[in-house]
Amino acid sequence: MGKKKSLHGLGTLQAEVMEIVWNFGEASVADVHELISGRRPISYTTALAAMQKLEKSGWLLSRRDGRANVYRAKRDRQKAGATVLKDLLRQAFGGDSRVLVSHLIDQQAMGEEELAELKQLIDARLQERRGE
Predict the structure, then answer these.
(1) The domain containing residue 108 runs over which residues?
(2) Residue 132, SS3?
(3) Residues of the chain with pLDDT > 70: what percent?
(4) Is 120 exposed, middle or buried (0-12, 13-18, 19+ CB in 10 A)?
(5) Which CA distances in Å does 108 have to 16, 78, 103?
(6) 101 plus 69 within the same structural domain
(7) Which residues pair with 61 in a beta bridge?
(8) Backbone phi, then psi, for 74, in 5-degree steps?
(9) For position 31, which CATH number holds?
């Protein structure tokens, strides 16, 4: 059985590490290990390996701080989210954003206020495209 992948295409641990780094701006392996081990068992070397793998695959950058490496995100959360959304749109909805929005509206039981806000967003985009 393979490892479960998150929406970002990362493994569960790697996604957890990215969330920590995004939330704190930067973190050492010791920081990440401490935070995760407070929730569940994890070895220091497992946290280190996850962070090294994330650096190698272009998700993290590191700098030396004394004897430790301190990591920061190379990809910001919004850009990663936009990539996930594009992939989801393509894979699950055949690239048709109307189907995605229709499912979102139908499945989320949105109230009148939320629907009005969506309408305002759509109207604003239409005005931008018309140059108004």
Answers:
(1) 96-130
(2) coil
(3) 94
(4) exposed
(5) 26, 22, 8
(6) no
(7) 72
(8) -90, -30
(9) 1.10.10.10
Look up residue 107 and give its two tokens: 């499945």
Place of tokens 């407070």: 38
Cα–Cα dist 130/124, whole Å: 10
pLDDT digits 0-9 by tens, 42-97:
999 999 999 999 999 999 999 999 999 999 999 888 887 787 788 888 888 898 98
Instruction: For residue 89, give the amino acid letter.
Output: L
- The answer to whether 60 and 73 are in contact (CB under 8 A) is yes
Say which residues have a Cβ less than 8 Å from residue 81's Cβ, sequence separation at least 6. Answer: none
Q: Is residue 78 part of a domain?
A: no
Q: Is the dihedral of CA 90, 76, 119, 107 positive or negative?
A: positive
Fill in the amino acid letter for 105: I
Contact 75, 59 (CB under 8 A): yes
Total domains, the chain: 2
Residue entry with tokens 């946290």: 47
Q: Name the E strands within 39-129.
A: 60-65, 68-73
Rounded Cα–Cα distance for residues 90 and 15 (Å): 22
